[in-house]
Design goal:
Shape of chain B: globular
Order of helices and strands of chain A: HHEHHHEHEHEHEHHHH
Radius of gyration of chain A: 20 Å
CATH topology of the largest domain in chain B: Rossmann fold
Strand content of chain B: 15-25%
Strand order of the largest sheet of chain B: 3-2-4-5-7-6-12
Helix content of chain B: 25-40%
Shape of chain A: globular
Largest interface: B-D, 55 and 55 residues
Oligomer: heterotetramer
CATH class of the largest domain in chain B: Alpha Beta
Bound molecules: thiamine diphosphate, magnesium ion
Low-confidence stretches of chain B: none
Number of helices of chain A: 12
Largest sheet of chain A: 5 strands, parallel
Order of helices and strands of chain B: EHEHEHEHHEHEHEEEEHEEHEHEHH
Number of strands of chain B: 14
CATH architecture of the largest domain in chain B: 3-Layer(aba) Sandwich
CATH class of chain A: Alpha Beta
Strand order of the largest sheet of chain A: 1-2-3-5-4
Helix content of chain A: 40-55%
Number of strands of chain A: 5
Mean pLDDT of chain B: 98
CATH topology of chain A: Rossmann fold
Largest sheet of chain B: 7 strands, mixed
Distance between the termini of chain A: 60 Å
CATH superfamily of the largest domain in chain B: Thiamin diphosphate (ThDP)-binding fold, Pyr/PP domains
Radius of gyration of chain B: 19 Å
Strand content of chain A: 5-15%
Distance between the termini of chain B: 41 Å
Number of domains of chain B: 2
């Protein structure tokens, strides 16, 4: 890739977001261990290059659907860590007033159409967002994050077929971290890649190194341009690895330690930091980012802790947009 | 006053809403050239073009989920399942996405979509094409559920459903499509959640909806000859439920039969019965009795299918049981 | 194809089954017009070569799942026209005691795992039959019939992926008659064929002339052998055309008359008859088959008419295998 | 007597059945090396091999449908949905295939499969991972529905479910998995359709199932201190329903509270309430009252989730309401 095209500011911003996501999630794991956090916490530690590279290829007006492993998706698309943290603590100051939690963070203003607890369910939602842009004649692109395992869900097939038939401006972004929960993708599919499935829809399909943020950035930019030019959808597969358990508490004993250690050496943040140092970035600049992120996440946690829970009366609020009381009562 | 069949009335309602609001689209199989098997969208493709008449592949799960996504972006999709029985392949986007999105996002976003689905037995369509399945929807918080019995109601209610900001399940009985009835002049909308007392009476209340309203009226006429004065409530909307109408009638007649075509076990009739038990127990002179479809698979063979779902004679028997006559 | 390999008896038997299916269904359409038959009647008139060619590639011990358009599938797999007819008339002498009707004919002894009213639902059922053979270590092959439109259902993708991953002995047979109900497959997919989708599962995928019974026969034989040899599943696509409406009563005004007339010239029974005459078959032999089939179908209808309906008490029978009364009552 | 948690008890039951009958297989996500998230099939892969421990891709619709096909061929699949909430993507093979196959084929074929699915709120799993959804199954003729409350019952019932020739939905409350209790010695099977009177009493009957049995017992102990003698019926099986047990108890206490965790509207509690109304009206001293989950989306925030589903205090209030004390 021709790094010349991009500014140092851009790179530092990408780096910052990767660190932001990492530190946000490490903080979560600490809180979880201490029993401060409830529910299922799925971290994307190790996958930050895929997430940040992808979201930087999008404009602010573009849309995404995130997954159950969605903290990174949301942050990279512009979500604030304090409101995120508050949501994960179930506080009323969170993105969803505490009602959604980790698997349901959404901010429509930021183009985040929601994380989703149902594997594969975000794919049709993203497709519908793409359809909307086509109907309205506007040029936003919608990008759907999903995992390797989600690509075996029927919605993958159905949605991409429709998007291809109608040339919808959607990018189908497969984060191939090689595992569902404990199941290796190789044991439940018989193809070399997920991207090869693009042939079944006659659309572009490409695989890239998901731990190389710049490779991801450039690859997704092409797919986004393709969509923006009304040439239709494509599949981008980023091969990466989830460094922690499926959710906090999962010892991940179904995978070999050796493989995990190999991937640890390919840590995307470390790798990108080294690349930046080879360019005109100094260690001090990186350290400053690190420190700033530490402070931001600490403050985010404090914000969450200081925020109140929603009032119990909110339990019956917002089930319906109209006639809520009556429809909830009977 | 002119007469329209229910299928034409729904078509007219949808047509008016599509003219009124360019965000309204229709989504489903065979919606284009064919205009749907019952002619509901006949001519829509020519009138509104392929951007607003989305003729889909057979991919119910994804085109329903796609409609949720479009609704979150401000489109107002009217999605069709060709038969309600197919909800089995499209339940997730309805129960876990459309129904829950507003709440899970803390009120950030609405999902103003309508899912239209033909229901009902009596057409010899056998096990997988003859169900009603209301409870699959009424049990899920976040959904509204409508089931009209007349063309005039169907038109007014489909318009309300399209304008509603919540996901609305709109259940159309296949054996009502061809029945013609008087239509009101001019534009009108019938609000969701308002029942209709289609026959006043003082001895017993029949609460029902959809095609069974017609059977209940037939039964009531028969019973009138025997001196039994039946009140018939057409609920029109199951969620929200018009409790005031139920309460007023029960407080007057003190005897109740709830009639539904669908399977009795865990049917919506049981919900109504238990609500009456809980809140109007002292008003009751007799136990609320349900007349409902048998807990069996819809059979194909005509004599068996006829025995499967309630007919006016079953309703008459139910009323007599309650009144102990 | 090398016609030499096959006996005259085989060819005449194939011809007979094609004629049997055609006459059975034409009789249905007549009865439907006269109001003698109820429900939705989907005929396969024009598709007999695909159906018969396919089923002749199977052994008696093999299994099929049929579709809503399943009369032909069942007859070609060995179902008797009298019991079929009785079923369609809702009589107790029918395959399902009249309880299933046209869309639910099944005969487990003949390996017919049932027609199905839900588009795409037979595909996983066939896959489960294939899994069973694998588990039991037996060598039956299961073949799943489905339409072009069904290939856009999620079950197509999910099931074939599993069958490929586990090398199940299943043949996925797409009857591409080019239409769902009114929707042309080209308007809702963006690929040249359905068979190309095999690439997404790394299995063989082949397209053949579905109106040429011998081409179908040979093509499916290969796929069946592949499955029987435990080499895994494949997709076979037979391109054909449905000559009548989607169901009886459908004027099929969504398609051009010209195209339908072109296909009429390619009538599979006529074409095969001509081929047979070029071989050592005489017109008299064909006429005799014709007459025998007329007589069989007439008798089948008479059998159906003469048979009683099930007793009304059967309405509550057989919902459950055990505890039926109690489970139906409450 | 030894103690086991419910997850271990279910594991033991399945294990015994797999040893007993080589046609029994398990099907689902993460069933192999991981042995399922709750350890239900831990060690099964080593013991029974990949032909009987089918570890699937995330393709619920098809692996459930596949299990129907296998069941039609004589296999006895025990399929797992990782959470019952995912039934939205696998409803068709359950409601239109498994449930209807025997009937539609005129009794030719059985579908001896079990669908196991964790249910329930209380784990802060939010909107799409905290539901119960019994009515989606109890409404569909052809399905049996089981929901145990103790490890001992769970083991005996899962064995019965595996041996049953009909499709059985087996609902396991996530917050019961870790609770340990005494296990009977030796082999035993608990027949489907037999309720258990877990506490005898004479003033009021609480009818419930699954985790709420524990809450009902807690409530009963509290109420005993106030001199209210509560009978608690653990239904264990919703279909077939043990009507004799309900009838006997209601005829004794004349006051009934039905308790369920799931959404109140169209819940199975309403079905029970309306059956009691229909057949035991004259036995009732007071209206049957339901204590149930609110008609809202399961919220994530802990104080909201705690308010969403019934706890022992809610049950106590329900009993007092019925007894007017
Ligand atoms: C329909 C459905 N099935 C199963 C699950 C349980 N589940 C949650 S995440 C997950 C694995 C997903 O794997 P993948 O799509 O590769 O995403 P990753 O977790 O690796 O990011 C599973 C099985 C679910 N949430 N939804
Ligand atoms: C899940 C589902 N969706 C829709 C239908 C209604 N339907 C029945 S047949 C059919 C068209 C099927 O087309 P195809 O698969 O090509 O088979 P063909 O009818 O051409 O044989 C449709 C839409 C259905 N029965 N099931
Ligand atoms: Mg993964
Ligand atoms: Mg077709």
């Amino acid at each position: 890739m021709s790094k010349k095209k991009y500014s140092k500011e851009l790179f530092l911003s990408m780096y910052e977001d990767m660190v932001r996501i990492r530190k946000f999630e490490i903080k979560l794991t600490e809180c979880f261990m201490k029993g401060m956090l409830a529910g299922n916490i799925h971290t994307c530690v190790g996958q930050e290059a895929t997430i940040v590279g992808t979201c930087y290829a999008l404009e602010k007006r573009d849309f995404i659907t995130a997954t159950h492993r969605g903290h990174g998706h949301c942050i990279a698309k512009g979500a604030k860590t304090d409101k995120m943290m508050a949501e994960l603590f179930g506080k009323v100051t969170g993105y969803c007033r505490g009602k959604g939690g980790s698997m349901h963070v959404a901010d429509l203003d930021l183009g985040i159409l929601g994380a989703n607890g149902i594997v594969g369910a975000g794919i049709p939602i993203a497709t519908g967002s793409g359809l909307t842009s086509k109907i309205k004649g506007t040029d936003e692109v919608t990008l759907s994050f999903f995992g390797d395992a989600a690509s075996n869900q029927g919605t993958f097939h159905e949605s991409i077929n429709m998007a291809s038939a109608w040339k919808l401006p959607v990018v189908y972004l497969c984060e191939n971290n090689q595992y569902g929960v404990s199941v290796n993708i190789k044991s439940v599919t018989n193809t070399e890649s997920i991207a090869v499935r693009a042939k079944a829809y006659n659309i572009p399909g490409v695989t890239c190194d998901g731990n190389d943020v710049l490779a991801v950035f450039e690859t997704v930019q092409e797919a986004v341009a393709h969509a923006r030019d009304k040439k239709g959808p494509s599949i981008v597969e980023c091969v990466t690895y989830r460094m922690r358990g499926h959710y906090e508490g999962d010892p991940a004993s179904y995978r070999s330690k050796e493989v995990t250690e190999e991937w640890a050496k390919k840590d995307p943040i470390k790798a990108f930091g080294e690349k930046l140092l080879e360019m005109d970035v100094t260690q001090e600049e990186l350290d400053a980012i690190d420190a700033a992120m530490d402070a931001e996440i600490e403050a985010a946690m404090q914000f969450a802790l200081d925020s109140p829970y929603p009032d119990v009366s909110e339990v019956t609020l917002d089930v319906y947009a109209s006639d809520n009381e009556r429809s909830v009562a009977r | 006053m002119s007469k329209l069949s229910m299928s034409k009335a729904i078509r007219e309602g949808l047509y008016e809403e599509m003219l009124r609001d360019e965000n309204v689209i229709v989504v489903g199989e065979d919606m284009g050239t064919m205009g749907n098997p019952f002619g509901i969208t006949l001519g829509f493709l020519d009138e509104f073009g392929p951007n607003r008449v989305i003729e889909t592949p057979i991919s119910e799960s994804s085109f329903t989920g796609m409609s949720v996504g479009a609704a979150m972006r401000g489109i107002r999709p009217v999605v069709e399942l060709m038969y309600v029985d197919f909800i089995g392949v499209a339940m997730d986007p309805i129960m876990n996405q459309a129904a829950k999105m507003r709440y899970m996002t803390g009120g950030q976003v609405n999902v103003p979509m309508v899912l239209r689905a033909p229901i009902g037995a009596g057409r010899r369509n056998a096990g997988q094409h003859s169900q009603c399945l209301e409870p699959l929807f009424t049990h899920i918080p976040g959904l509204k559920v409508v089931a009209p019995s007349t063309p005039a109601d169907a038109k007014g209610l489909i318009k309300a459903a399209v304008r509603d900001d919540d996901p609305v399940i709109f259940l159309e009985h296949k054996l009502l499509y061809a029945i013609k009835d008087e239509m009101p002049e001019g534009e009108y909308v019938i609000p969701l959640g308002k029942a209709n007392v289609v026959r006043e009476g003082k001895d017993v209340t029949i609460i029902t909806w959809s095609r069974q309203v017609l059977f209940a009226k037939e039964a009531a006429e028969e019973l009138a000859k025997e001196g039994i004065d039946v009140e018939v409530i057409d609920l029109r909307t199951l969620v929200p439920l018009d409790w005031e109408a139920i309460k007023a009638s029960v407080s007057k007649t003190h005897n109740v039969v709830v009639v539904q075509e669908g399977y009795k076990r865990s049917g919506f009739a049981g919900e109504i019965s238990s609500q009456i038990m809980e809140e109007l127990f002292d008003e009751l002179d007799s136990p609320v009795y349900r007349v409902a479809g048998l807990n069996v698979v819809p059979p194909f063979s005509p004599p068996l299918e006829d025995a499967f779902f309630p007919n006016p004679q079953d309703i008459i028997a139910g009323v007599k049981k309650v009144l102990e006559v």
